[in-house]
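Hi F.,

I've been meaning to write this up properly since the lab meeting, where we talked about keeping a consistent format for the predictions we share between groups. The idea is simple: the sequence comes first, exactly as it goes in, then the structure tokens exactly as they come out, then a line or two of notes. No screenshots and no reformatting. I'm using this chain as the first example so we have something concrete to point to.
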Amino acid sequence: MGNLILRRNRPIREHQRIWQDYYVDKNLDDDWLEMLNSLSFYKMISICEGHFHDNNRPRGACPHINLRLKEQYMPLVISKFDQVSQILRQKLVELFGHENTYADIEFNIKIIASRSREEIRRDLVMHIHSRIARTREELDTNTKTWFQKIIKKVQEFDNFFSNILNG
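Output, unedited:
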């Protein structure tokens, strides 16, 4: 599915449904979406259940979740990033560093200067990807289990993030 897309005047695709006025993959559980949508420090920017593609051989797209740090917390992160980056790395490895998941945090600073615009943009995005591609059209038990475990770990990371930034 990729990015959460606000429903517009385009028809819904076969693999999608509507959740809170967004197009989402049809097999994503409402509870998962609610949990990710209620994080304290992060907002969900994309989620994909992974998709099976059958072109004479099975190959699938892997499920993933992408989260962006909420804008109001960016100044706090910037002021403490060097102090907490090693602790964040350790927690990322602890929660997501196993054989069937890949996770990273990307921190970007972009300085823009032109005749029409001058600004500094800061962005912190967390990517979490399953390393196991979908092998069937219907959502399999492995994918469901991956989402259930990973979303709990995302919630734990969100709480941990709160503790180290406010502590």
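Notes:
The beta strands are 5-6, 16-19, 22-25, 42-48, 52-54, 58-60, 64-69, 101-113, 118-130.
The chain has one domain: 5-166.

If this format works for you, I'll send the rest the same way.

G.
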